[in-house]
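Shipment paperwork, digital attachment
Item: protein structure file
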Amino acid sequence: MYYVYIIKCEGDLLYTGITTDVDRRMDEHERKTPKGAKFTRSHQFKSLEALWSCGSRSLASKLEYRIKHLKKAQKLRLIADNTCFSELISDENTEFYCREII
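Attachment content:
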């Protein structure tokens, strides 16, 4: 199982990534380990805001790419209300993504 996530960092900045182990990845971001993203090493991790699961790395990478190309207002809308997912992501595979409760 692969997961795509959005985290909030200091300054209300948003970071999107993929992982197979959410707890491990959040720990890497929070502790600023070398395996954590360069972005989160320079912008303190605050909270996990949204999480989606899917069955393959290919699907996860496609979703990550689409989310990263949204404007911040659209990302915030997606975090607040997943009913706009198919509208904002506009991918023929939206039925393969499941929003997880965090």
